[in-house]
Amino acid sequence: MWKFIIRRVMLAIVIIVFGSLICYAVIRMLPTSYVERVARQRSTMPGARPYTEILAQLDARYGMNQPILIGFARWGWNALRGLWGDSWFFSQPVTKKFADVIGYSIVLNVITLFLEMMLCIPLGILAARKQYSRTDYTVTVIALTCISLPTFFLATILKYIFAIKLGWVDLYGIVGRYYEQMNATGKFWDMAAHMILPIVTLTLLNLGGLMRFTRTNMLEVLNADYIRTARAKGLPERKVINKHAFRNTLIPLVTYLSYLLPSLFGGSLITETLFQIPGIGYISYQAIVGGDIPFTMFYITFLTALTQISLMVADVMYAVVDPRVRIS
Amino acid sequence: MPINPNPQDAGAPSARRLDDEARIKVLSPSMLVFKRFVRNRLAVVGTCILAVMFVFSFAGGLISPYTQSQTFYKNDVMWKEYASLSVNSEYRYTAAVGADLPGSARTQFILALNANKPNYTAGGADYTWTRLDDDFIVISRTSEVATALPLAGEYAFTLRPGADFPAEAQSALIAALDAKQAGFEWNGVQYITTRIGKSYSISSAEEIAIAAARVFDAYEPGYETVTAQYGFRRAALTAIAEGSEAFEYNGASYSQRADGDIVTVYDNSTGQPVEFAIISKYIAQGFSPDVRVSVAFKEAILDAVNARAASFIFPDDEDPDREYQITTPKPDTYTIKRETVTLLYDTEARPSLAHWLGTDSNGMDMMTRLMYGGRVSLMVGFVVVALELVIGVIFGGIAGYFGGRTDLLLMRFIDLFNCIPSTPIMFIMGSVMDTMEVNPYARIYLLMFVLGLLGWTGIARVVRGQILTLREQDFMIAAEATGIRTSARIFRHLVPNVMPLLIVQATLSLGGVVITEATLSFLNLGLKYPLASWGTIINSASNIYTLTNYWYLWIPAGLMILVTVLGFNFVGDGLRDAFDPKMKR
Fold this sequence. Notes:
The complex is a heterodimer.
Chain A: H1 2-28, H2 34-43, H3 51-62, H4 68-80, E1 86-87, E2 92-93, H5 94-129, H6 134-148, H7 151-165, H8 184-222, H9 225-232, H10 237-259, H11 263-266, H12 269-275, H13 280-289, H14 293-321
Antiparallel strand pairs in A: 1-2
Chain B: H1 7-11, H2 29-39, H3 41-63, E1 73-87, E2 92-95, H4 103-115, E3 119-122, E4 125-133, E5 136-151, E6 154-159, H5 167-178, E7 183-186, E8 189-196, E9 199-212, E10 215-218, H6 224-227, H7 230-242, E11 246-249, E12 252-259, E13 262-267, E14 274-280, E15 282-286, H8 295-306, E16 311-313, E17 323-330, E18 333-345, H9 366-402, H10 404-418, H11 422-436, H12 440-455, H13 457-471, H14 474-482, H15 486-522, H16 534-539, H17 544-549, H18 555-579
Antiparallel strand pairs in B: 1-15, 1-18, 2-9, 3-4, 4-5, 5-6, 5-9, 7-8, 8-9, 10-14, 11-12, 12-13, 13-14, 16-17, 17-18
Helix pairs in contact in B: 2-18, 3-9, 3-18, 9-10, 9-12, 9-13, 9-15, 10-13, 11-12, 13-15, 14-15, 15-18
């Protein structure tokens, strides 16, 4: 077990290093960079020095004049010491900006995850119990429709109905126009109102996967011998489902949920961008499109690390919840 | 003995036994799959959806009467500038017959006028002007004929050589000088005297031009030859200046009547006064050269302007109740607008028979754009999935078939590839293509390549897993035992068994790719105008105005994506069940 974990951690580290190296190389190879843009801007100011001179100075200042590998090594060494640098786009320490915005994403995604589980697990189990019934077909169609919905279309439709036609909520943003004048309760409700549409969007989008996963696993469990035994010994159906079947469905569910861990931090990128919620998704979108290397590198490394951790957690969790699984 | 004795069978000599091979209908495995697939209602619905979508996208473009980037126009009635009316504040010059007032003389005239000096010099010639009226000045060219020096009550004359100043004129001159008159007339020639120091300069003056702030408008185009003439203008303006109501010109007699600052001239030569011209300080011009402003129309404008009306009615050939609107862009300038038929881009037209889904914001037919957009979206989907399949099958196949160290190495490589966050990378690629201004057609291929490169790991894993399990199965051991070639083992025994899984995987990822491409295009990082894809069409909804007012510009494209992806998912799901009856969806 320990040997497995150590080997897994080693592999994760290699993957994180290579992943961030690839990203660094891609960003550095961009034909135009943030630095060039700033230099061009400054060279057009009255009395400015020529563009090439400013560019050379800025390149040296931002470390863009080094070869990619050396630049990456330097960045990695600083990152190891916890020096992630200052974001170019936001003119703030990267970690501070990250800490400022991550809260929104976590709130958004945790509520979404909670709603998802509340909806999907009962519906999935229902569909599995009544396989091939009208209910089953309905659940399957709903699940597949949710999977097939493009984020931007769903978000736009929701905006059109609830923000434009009905006017219940605002189109964009996390706070309303009068946020500053509100008292604490008012501020809370204002923010909550702005979170409604993004949460609905995210929940609907992720509904399908979990619902089908629950259904498939429940079906598998329901076909198992011990369920037949439970039925054979005359247990009431309620007990068979809730005690014998459902508990066994939880095993793959726990693993599935730990796979979802990175999506808590990065899964809502498009939704946040569409609703302009200043969470990590929207902020990193701005940083990426704006060519902000420190922030993008930090975000991508963070995501990669998180993915690796969640994979490890999933493996370990699997062994923990299911005593039949023995990791070799 | 038959197991199941049938009364009909009993008598029949060739009665078949129940376990007779001819009675058992053997279905081929693919037939079984097909039967199971057809039994699944969702899968059939999905197949129908996909069929419709393919016909719509690929055949639709051929049937549609329009092309992808054909723009449509419409005639719209707009209030457009028709004519303008302004108060003339500049002097307009009319030169006498055979005379000429050069530009420098005009400039110097204005300077002299502003300085209130009656004499000025321009271009080596001397000029003088006489104001007859606030708006009417006569300009004459002068040439010195003599100088007179007063000497003890007498005048000593010095004649200019070649000048025509007869002795009889001298007595008239002396009389004028004694009376201290600025000028005198003798024998039809005007002379002016100017005092220079002690002596006088005597010049003959020849009238060469008039400067008037009033303009002439003839009632009939035929009258313009008269109204443009110097003599007519001089006579009419002099009559105005003198306050007389009649004047003669060229043997014809005219009368005029003033109404405010507008004077109407009548031609009396036929005995009956005929409206001939109007003289006013207002200039009316058409906005385009082909518009001729008639006097009647000008009068109508002037009436409306004087009444401070915002609009007036003036009949024309087409419309007896033609309405005109008056606006005042700046003081003393009036713009007259009328409703004009104008050719415009037919943008954001509502759905109609000609355009079933209306037109987009560039005036292109939305239905046709959707068809061509579907072509691009589906093509991107297929090419990307094909690319994913090729890479995925090669990597997964090698890893699965050879196992061991190769497998470990390749799987770590796949892990590595898998950890690249695809969304940020696609965003980066999109903005790179933006800054490099990649040609929209090249963009498609780049986009396909990037999407394929980022998405193959899933397929590789599936293939590898499947091959690993298959390798251990009895039929593979049997195949190996028969000693057939490795290639035959792979292609005859392994590949057919991986195929079902691949087909399912490919169908399901087709939907995903369509969504990804649409999302990128929606965020303006994917395909670009003039190419249509369903994502770029919805992109117009990111503009709040379009989103709010023109539902038909974005909802159809969104539904297209939704329905197509749903179709792929239904079919993929149905195929999975059909291939793997154990699982039952």
